[in-house]
User: Which sequence fits this backbone?
């Protein structure tokens, strides 16, 4: 929380907030205390006197946007400022879902709120629900509008009713703001295509290949197989448009301040629907500069901070999630650095942990995981992670070659091994995943597959192999046990809580068959969910195990994220150990065995969790047994030890 917010909290005393006057007064205080920073950020991106008119426009826009914010949300903003860093609480447990795959539409979702409550989930990330092109649309990440609701999901009224209900139940909502690009059907793109020069300047559009060719020298390819290159020829304009992702996704040109100003207004319209966390999609790409990779540029950080500071003035209760699946040292910068530390995004995906957990599963060793985590810079205190096993996208092996080599493995071979292990190129591997965007030129590729299929459940079921099925279930529970205890908001992918397998139906859909990420976006299996209480199935075993872990998480304050994680140096190369602590001398020690055979840990390496402390495993509810000074973990066993 920045200085300005602290002043506001002091100003809250003795004010009747329901009076519009009081809310306006607080807005003005926020504006005056943040204005110098906003001005600096704006003119550092858009220098010179010729941008003064745009800045004045921005200044006029801020109070207008505040006026549009509904009063219940303004009150909630103030409540959140008082409450502090609500997004770090151990009470938050999230789920990510495609509304159409989960419950058909928004009304359906409203009727399923009880399901989330049963599991203990109170934070929802709904994949894009905004209008999109009819054919290919990247699962809605090609947007035709930033704040309307696509008919297939229902109406804006349905969404507003849902968010109101969620607020009543203390549930939180995260929606995407696809800030880097619009679809080619977006009104600005259509006007640009019709020859309107004003709107052509909203995008990166060029007469011929000169600048695109110069850009291509240093840009990478995001979807090399389906959308090679970074520019698309548009026959209507007879010009080249920058399209870093798919050809139908046009990159916005933020070097034009008008784009920032209109996008700020779209951001607020989205937030005003009752959104608590705005996921800034593909934010690493928001600023382009010739001669660079055009990812993670300093200007992109300035731009995001500028959005953040304006939001701080208008809607301070809303926070940003950085969708930056980039190198570990780059991810951390999205929390803000230098003078803007803590003033960029409050939340980021812990993509490093995610990818390395998959490494540990495949190698059955935790050495590379430790190596990377030890070298990760500490995040600011007011920031937190999304802790996840997998999401709707592919799993990229985004960790450093240097560390692979340092643990004694050959980086190229190791990466090939991981792709082979997960993508069905190794006979003995239990994993059943698919390869995504394999580039034969470089040998690079990413992995797709549901959590259960990647962890061996699908193969176990195919072979009717009970031992393999049980092992897969243990792995699924252990992996969730990690994201629920590691720190940050755990985000479960819908279906993983009941062991959903890969969904191959995408292969029959022409608009999806080229994109194997659809294999890991299954439809929610309500038929099996109906029998969770009455039948003992693998679905119910996983569901109730996660339900218990979620319950335990919420009972233990140490799981709130206050940079209270201590890694325990690997006394056994197959085991991952960390402690969550509190200043009240409380603590939980998490231990996980990534190997197929039992492993032991010498009592001496467990510090204050040794036998004298009589630690209790919160999960089994039993006292921990030490045999000859050692603690034994069964294959894929998870312990949450608490001092008695
Ligand atoms: C983000 C989304 C991904 C999408 C891309 C382009 O990375 O997670 O699904 O394809 O942005 O919008």
Assistant:
């Amino acid at each position: 929380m920045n200085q300005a917010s602290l002043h506001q909290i002091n100003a809250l005393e003795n004010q009747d907030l329901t009076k519009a006057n009081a809310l306006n007064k607080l807005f003005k205080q926020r504006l005056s205390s943040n204005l110098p920073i906003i001005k600096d950020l704006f003119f550092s991106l858009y220098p010179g006197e010729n941008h003064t008119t745009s800045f004045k426009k921005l200044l006029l826009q801020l109070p207008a946007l505040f006026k549009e914010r509904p009063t219940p949300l303004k009150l909630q903003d103030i409540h959140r400022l008082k409450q502090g860093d609500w997004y770090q609480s151990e009470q938050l447990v999230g789920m990510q879902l495609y509304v159409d795959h989960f419950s058909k539409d928004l009304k359906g979702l409203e009727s399923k709120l009880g399901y989330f409550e049963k599991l203990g989930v109170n934070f929802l990330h709904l994949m894009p629900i905004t209008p999109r092109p009819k054919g290919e649309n990247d699962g809605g990440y090609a947007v035709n509008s930033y704040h309307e609701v696509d008919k297939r999901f229902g109406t804006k009224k349905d969404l507003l009713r849902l968010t109101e209900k969620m607020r009543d139940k203390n549930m939180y909502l995260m929606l995407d703001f696809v800030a880097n690009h619009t679809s080619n059907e977006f009104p600005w793109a259509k006007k640009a295509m019709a020859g309107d020069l004003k709107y052509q300047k909203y995008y990166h559009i060029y007469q011929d290949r000169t600048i695109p060719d110069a850009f291509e020298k240093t840009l990478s390819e995001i979807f090399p197989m389906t959308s090679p290159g970074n520019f698309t020829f548009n026959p209507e304009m007879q010009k080249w448009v920058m399209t870093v992702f798919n050809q139908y996704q046009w990159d916005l040109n933020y070097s034009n301040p008008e784009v920032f100003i209109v996008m700020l207004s779209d951001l607020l319209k989205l937030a005003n629907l009752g959104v608590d966390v705005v996921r800034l999609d593909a934010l690493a790409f928001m600023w382009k500069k010739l001669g660079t990779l055009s990812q993670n540029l300093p200007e992109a950080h300035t731009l995001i901070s500028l959005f953040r500071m304006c939001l701080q003035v208008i809607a301070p209760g809303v926070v940003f999630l950085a969708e930056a699946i980039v190198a570990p040292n780059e991810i951390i910068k999205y929390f803000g650095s230098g003078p803007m530390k803590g003033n960029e995004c409050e939340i980021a995906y812990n993509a490093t942990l995610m990818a390395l957990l998959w490494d540990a599963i495949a190698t059955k060793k935790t050495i590379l995981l430790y190596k990377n985590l030890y070298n990760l810079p500490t995040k600011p205190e007011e920031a937190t992670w999304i802790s996840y096993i997998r999401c709707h996208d592919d799993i990229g092996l985004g960790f450093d070659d240097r560390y692979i080599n340092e643990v004694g493995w050959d980086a190229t071979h190791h990466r090939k091994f991981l792709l082979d292990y997960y993508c069905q190129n190794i006979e003995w591997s239990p994993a059943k995943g698919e390869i995504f965007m394999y580039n034969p030129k470089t040998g690079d590729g990413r992995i797709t597959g549901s959590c259960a299929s990647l962890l061996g459940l699908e193969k176990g079921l195919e072979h009717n192999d009970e031992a393999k099925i049980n092992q897969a279930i243990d792995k699924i529970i252990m992996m969730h046990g990690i994201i629920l205890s590691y720190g940050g908001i755990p985000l479960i992918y819908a279906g993983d809580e009941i062991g959903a397998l890969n969904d191959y139906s995408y292969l029959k859909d022409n608009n999806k068959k080229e994109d194997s990420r659809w294999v890991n976006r299954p439809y929610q299996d309500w038929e099996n969910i109906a029998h969770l209480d009455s039948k003992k199935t693998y679905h119910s075993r996983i569901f109730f195990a996660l339900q218990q872990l979620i319950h335990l998480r919420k009972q233990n304050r140490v799981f709130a994220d206050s940079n209270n994680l201590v890694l325990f140096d690997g006394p056994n190369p197959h085991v991952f150990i960390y402690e969550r602590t509190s200043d009240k001398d409380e603590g939980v020690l998490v231990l996980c065995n990534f190997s197929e055979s039992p492993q032991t840990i010498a009592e001496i390496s467990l510090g204050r969790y040794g036998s004298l402390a009589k630690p209790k495993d919160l999960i089994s509810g039993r006292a921990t047994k030490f045999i000859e000074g050692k603690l034994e973990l069964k294959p894929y066993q998870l312990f949450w030890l608490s001092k008695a």
Remarks:
- DSSP finds 23 helices and 23 strands in the chain.
- Residues 138-139, 141, 178, 245, 281-282, 323, 393 surround alpha-D-glucopyranose (CB under 6 Å).
- The chain has a mean pLDDT of 95.
